[in-house]
């Protein structure tokens, strides 16, 4: 359904922790102007874990309004409670989202059958395209390819964001699902190679600060132009690494603040980027050409 460079968008906040909707509107325009092909609202990078239900729904709804049909908005609606995930997914549908992204239930460590039944129930409860999201480094549970294949049989489960960083996992999923099931990279470091091996897009943190380069890289990789894709990606490799020197979205929010795009707000238990990492993140931004050297 969706292709290319997709941004895992931050949620801008004032220093008093309130959501900064004016900055959010600027970010939406920034991505539309720079070729981003879809916005993911209220995913992990959007600090979904620290916004309450009303805030979560409002950010999704207002992002859709700001996009105004010019770019698809995919709403992050996963939760470790199946009931809560259904409520968030219904809220996203009511707010006009184009699809939903549902992270595997975190912390409670369900079995593969539990994962299957969780996502099946959400898909059957809310008629909106749904994308699975596997990120075991965050959730402590790994959705295995056989489970993905079972869920891919459900009509409105249309793809997966696979964030293990294991390119062998891509091949295994490809061997078990139909060609119309989309597979997205959730790992910036391996995103270019993921696309060159047949993936359909990258849901990216780096895209927050370098959207034009990420869009151009994805376009080249999807066209099978390895030389061009790797050449565009080369200056971004520092960002792919340093934007994870502390827990996402700590570094990327600091970077966007450095660019003058958002205030410095971030919610506890996350904290501002440690001073020792300012220089390496700034150097990576300079290498990528998003700020002056």
Q: Could you characterize the architecture of this molecule?
A:
It contains 13 helices and 8 strands. The chain is α/β, with parallel strands linked by helices and 293 residues long. It has an 8-stranded parallel β-barrel, surrounded by 4 helices. The N and C termini lie far apart (39 Å). The mean pLDDT is 97.
Structure characteristics:
alpha/beta, TIM Barrel, 13% strand, 293 residues
Helical fraction: 40-55%
**Beta-strand content bin:** 5-15%
Shape: globular
What value does the average pLDDT take?
97
Structural domain count: 1
* CATH architecture grouping: Alpha-Beta Barrel
Compact description:
By secondary structure, the protein is of the alpha/beta class. It is 43% helix and 13% strand. It contains 13 helices and eight strands.
Write the layout of secondary structure elements.
Blueprint: E1 4-8, H1 21-33, E2 38-41, H2 53-67, E3 73-76, H3 82-94, E4 99-103, H4 112-125, E5 130-134, H5 136-139, H6 145-151, E6 157-162, H7 167-174, E7 182-185, H8 191-196, E8 201-204, H9 211-222, H10 226-233, H11 237-242, H12 250-258, H13 278-288
Parallel strand pairs: 1-2, 1-8, 2-3, 3-4, 4-5, 5-6, 6-7, 7-8
Helix pairs in contact: 1-2, 2-3, 3-4, 4-6, 9-10, 12-13
């Amino acid at each position: 359904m969706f292709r290319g460079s997709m941004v895992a968008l931050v949620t801008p906040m004032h220093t008093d922790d309130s959501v900064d909707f004016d900055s959010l509107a600027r970010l939406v325009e920034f991505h539309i102007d720079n070729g981003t092909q879809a916005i993911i609202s209220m995913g992990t990078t959007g600090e979904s874990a620290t916004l309450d239900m009303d805030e979560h729904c409002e950010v999704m709804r207002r992002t859709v309004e700001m996009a105004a049909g010019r770019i698809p908005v995919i709403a992050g609606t996963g939760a470790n409670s199946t009931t809560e995930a259904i409520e968030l997914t219904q809220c996203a549908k009511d707010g006009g989202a184009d699809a939903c992204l549902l992270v595997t239930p975190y912390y409670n460590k369900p079995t593969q059958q539990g994962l299957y039944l969780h996502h099946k129930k959400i898909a059957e409860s809310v008629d909106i395209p749904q994308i699975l999201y596997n990120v075991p480094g965050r959730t402590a549970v790994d959705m295995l390819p056989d489970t993905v294949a079972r869920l891919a049989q459900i009509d409105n489960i249309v793809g997966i964001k696979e964030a293990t960083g294991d390119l062998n996992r891509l091949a295994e999923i490809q061997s078990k699902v139909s060609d119309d099931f989309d597979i997205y990279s959730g790992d910036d470091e391996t995103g270019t190679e993921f696309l060159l091996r047949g993936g359909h897009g990258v849901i990216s943190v780096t895209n927050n600060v370098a959207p034009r380069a990420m869009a151009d890289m994805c376009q080249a990789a999807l066209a099978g132009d390895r030389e061009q894709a790797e050449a565009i990606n080369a200056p971004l490799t520092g960002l792919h690494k340093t934007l994870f020197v502390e827990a996402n979205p700590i570094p990327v929010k600091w970077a966007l603040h450095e660019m003058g795009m958002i205030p410095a707000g971030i919610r506890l238990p996350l904290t501002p980027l440690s001073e020792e990492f300012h220089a390496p993140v700034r150097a990576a931004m300079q290498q990528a050409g998003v700020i002056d050297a």
